Amino acid sequence: MSVGTIADPVITLEKAKGGLQRIAATTETQMQSVALTFRELAGQADTILSLAAAIVGCVENEGVSSILPKVQTLGAAARQFIGERLHATAGILDAVATEVEVLRQLSQVTTQQADIALKTQALSVLTNVEVAHLGEMGTGFQYLAHELANFSRSLIEDALTLESRTDARKAAILDTKRVLSTELPRLREKLAVIEADLGADLANLDSSLIQLSRTPAQFKMGVEDIAQQIDGVVSAIQAHDITRQQSEHVEEAFAIISARIGEAENSKNGIVQDFPQAYAGLTIQIYQLKSIKVTVETWTMQIKTCMDGILRVSASEMVGIGPTVLGQERDVSSQLAHIELLERESQSYSARIQHTLEGLSSLMQFVSEHVRRSKSVRDRLRLLSFNSIIEASHLGTKADAVLAIAKTIKEISAEWNQITDRSGRAMEEMQALMNQTNTMMEAFSESSNEKLREAQFQTRAGLENLRAAAAFAAKQSQEMEMITGKMRAKGAEVGGTYDLLDSCSGQIEGILTQLESLRNGLELEHPGVKHGYDEMEAERLYSATYTTEIEREILRAALRGAPLPVAQPALAGNGVELF
Amino acid sequence: MKRILTVDDSTSVRQMVSFALGKAGYEVTEAVDGKDGLDKASEGKFDLIITDLNMPNMDGIQMIEAVRKLPANGFIPILMLTTESQAAKKDAGRKAGATGWIVKPFNAEQLLATIQKLVK
Predict the structure, then answer these.
(1) What's the CA gap between A55 and A58, in Å, rounded?
(2) Residue A575 counted as domain residue
(3) CB distance from A545 to chain B under 8 Å?
């Protein structure tokens, strides 16, 4: 038989068997090593998943996602609260400006009043002179001179008192105006700075909170993927046992084929029976080896994919988030402290404004009394004027001077009426200012900051929860990073296994080449062998030791020339069938 | 703690079974073939046995028949973990006294769930 000598096919098959045995030994050793490594990796993956799940749970339980809306609500409440106080303070500043004007008018009243007092005094002197001049006829006017003198004294006293009060009040409110004018822009500026800083801090915190909420879950999903791949490797390790048996059966088949080729040389029907059966055997083993090659490549890829995933896994992103959030939480808390400071500062103006209000109230009471007295003086002057004219009419021709005095009294009365009206209007304006200021003072009341207090309380509680979650995440992440470091180191150890398994695929390819060459040689030498074998006999001969269904399927496909059946990798594994 | 005996001539398969069951809190003893499995079953008290079918020295069917004859192991659950899936083989296993049949590779979760029911 010229496939070379009969020794050639036998030697080829012996060499192929040796190759398979070496491959089996290599894969057995490597798969044991992989099994041990992946046991450890599976345990580490489980630990990381527990840690990641704990972070996810903590973030959810501490309501991390609700902190941002709380801080935003607080920011809005603070803005509104401080804004209202600033508005009230600005309003009070306007009221103060108005009060300065009213006081200016009162000053004018004081001046006018002083003038009238002097006129009245002069008139009193004139009246005394005329009374003296009239002698007995002037007795009726004595009381007039007396009244005018009293008027003059009381007007001067009143004017002095009013002047003193208005001057004191002017000094007080100018001081308040100076302070508020300086502080108001400063407060506004502080509020603007807080708003800007709080806005920036919230934006940073928002970004970090999103990371804190999402990253652990994403990391957990990533590790779950790896855990699944580890499960896949575990299945591959089990499937190795199937491949090992398949390979042993191929080696056994080589012995049958060698025997058949030997018999063909010595048998009369060798060409008809034995060579075709040998050919069929070679075809079957080629198919089986191709299947083994595909399976080895599948495990190799499974191990590589898993290893690559493990080498990439890192909790470093997670390690950074906790401390970042803690830092940003401190920034936000600092802003909240600024808000509280601003709140207290604005509250300090309440005392000053209250004092202003009290001063205004006190002045208004005085002015009210003054108006009342003015009206009384006005009425009295009218009466004096009237009585003077009547008395003058009794004096006949000697009444010219008295008439002049009476006329002057009438003029003074009219002037006084104006002063009384002006004082009345000033009082009305003061009343309006009082009301306006009272309304603005509500911004400084205890009830005005209820909304702010509630928002502050909610935010403080939320920030405490955030601190707890971030600190927990930081601690867990560090532990996770340590374990992922160990996983990466362990995964790197498997690198050598992957290379060895990868080379096994090439070695199997080499054996296949030899078998195909042998088969082709047989076919060339004896063209009838390709279709000369009995299928059932071939199946009986070569499947006697088979232990798996896939081997039988491959054998049938080989004998019929059908495509190679592909064993679906049962990565999830098979269940238990109970009898 | 429940004790389980795993019998298989493949080291890596024994390792995988030990890992899956050990993680769940079972104490696992390994045997390298049917004879070793029978010896260990005679010496110790196990709550369940998992055995391969095709092994040197003594195969799984022979081991099950022998174990069933041991005084303490008449009712012990025995699961066959094998590459074989043919009905005839399963029938032989059932007649020998196997409680259940798993075709390799096994699904760890389902295996644990079944063991939990069997060893209660």
Answers:
(1) 5
(2) no
(3) no
Tell me if A565 is assigned to some domain.
Answer: no
Contact B4, B27 (CB under 8 A): yes
d(CA B110, CA B24): 12
B90 at A interface, C-beta within 8 A = yes
Task: Identify the domain containing residue B112 by its residue range.
Answer: 3-118
d(CA B74, CA B69): 7
**How far apart are the C-alpha atoms of A208 and A176, rounded to whole Å?**
46
**Burial class of residue A391, CB neighbours in 10 A (0-12, 13-18, 19+):** buried
Alpha-carbon torsion angle B1, B5, B10, B13, nearest 10: -40
Closest B-chain CA to A36: B15
Q: Chain A residue with minimal CA distance to B118?
A: A578
The token pair at B77 is: 């659950």
Number of structural domains chain A divides into: 1
Phi, psi (5° rounding) for residue A303?
-65, -40
| Distance, CA of A113 to CA of A405 (rounded, Å) | 19
Which amino acid is it at B24? Answer: A
Residue among A235, A240, A578 minimizing CB distance to B99: A578
Q: How many domains does the structure of chain B reveal?
A: 1
Q: Which of A39, A547, A570 sits opposite B54 (nearest CB)?
A: A547
Judge whether B103 is closer than 8 Å to chain A, CB to CB: yes
A356 or A206, higher pLDDT: A206
Domain membership flag for residue A417: yes
B3-7, strands of its sheet edge to edge: A576-578, B100-103, B78-82, B48-51, B3-7, B27-31
Q: Is B32 on the interface with A (CB under 8 A)?
A: no
Q: How far does the CA of residue B93 sit from the closest CA of chain A (Å)?
A: 10
Q: Is the peptide bond before B105 cis (omega within 30 degrees of 0)?
A: yes
Q: Per DSSP, which regions of A365-416 are E strands?
A: none
Q: Could you tell me if A173 lies within 8 Å of chain B, comparing CB atoms?
A: no
Mean pLDDT over A287-295 rounds to 94
CB-neighbour burial class of residue A250 (10 A; exposed 0-12, middle 13-18, buried 19+): buried
Q: Do A577 and B102 touch (CB under 8 A)?
A: yes
Q: Rounded to an integer, what distance in angstroms lies between the CA atom of residue B76 and that of residue B37?
A: 14
The angle at the Cα of A260, spanning A257 to A261, to the nearest 5 degrees, equals: 90
CB of B61 less than 8 A from some CB of A: no
pLDDT recorded at residue A2: 46
Q: A213-239 pLDDT, tens per residue?
A: 788 888 888 888 888 888 778 778 888
Predicted local distance difference test score (pLDDT) of residue A1 = 44
Q: What distance in Å separates residue A69's CA from the closest CA in chain B?
A: 43
Separation between Cα atoms, residue A529 and residue A112, nearest integer Å: 144
**Separation of CA A350 from chain center:** 35
Does residue A568 fall inside a structural domain? Answer: no
Nearest to B12 among A32, A572, A575 (CB): A32
Separation in Å, CA of A479 to nearest CA in chain B: 21
The helix (H) or strand (E) run that includes residue B30 is strand B27-31
Contact A548, A285 (CB under 8 A): no
**Residue found by looking up tokens 């009301």 in the block:** A435
- Residue A20 CA to residue A14 CA, distance in Å, equals 10
Pick left, alpha or beta for residue B97 (phi over 0 → left; psi -120 to 50 → alpha; otherwise beta).
Answer: left
Burial-class residue B69 by CB neighbours within 10 Å (0-12, 13-18, 19+): exposed
pTM of the model: 0.71
User: What was the ipTM of the complex prediction?
Assistant: 0.86
Name the residue range of residue A50's domain: 7-560
Compute φ and ψ for B2, nearest 5 degrees.
-75, 145
